Amino acid sequence: MTQDISPHSQPDPRLTVLNERRSTPVLALQTPAPDPEALAQIIAAATRVPDHGRLTPWRILEIPSERRESFAAAVQNCHRASDPDVTDAALEKDAQRFGNSPMLLVVISCIHENHKVPEFEQTLSGACVCFALLQAAQALGFAGQWLTGWAAYDAGIARLLGLAENECVLGFMHFGTASQAVPERARPALSDIYDRWKA
Prior knowledge:
NADH Oxidase; single chain; 5-stranded antiparallel β-sheet; globular
């Protein structure tokens, strides 16, 4: 016998990290970012994701802070090459997004082609890594944002990052410490997203 579920007035405190998760815009991130020890813990926790076939169809690339300015400039060059009509405002957004975040990680999907595990399932595993990175960072007191945008799909950016033909960007993951409180946004009502199958 099953029961209908209903929202609880008092959330279980064991779910606090999930219930308080929210994205912090890159421009609202400041130092400190995770140090090497914290980053190692974040990655170790975040890679405990479903992985059908144990393929590890993803990897994580850090853009070091000392290389960030040159990386941002290269991103701008790629943007100009792919869109000759790109505006100065869009290029400035590139500079702020890729040059100023306290920590930048790139989660890369590494598809095992012609494998019995469907490519979509492999991609889902990598997407889980992206989300788990946000959760793990927040659990340690940091804030972050998962972004894609034009750069995630650009061939020039793929070359800049040294991606193989079977690889693509799943997310640019920005981390640091929130400089301001991020307001809660409206969440879907349980009744709008949950139902029980009826034969």
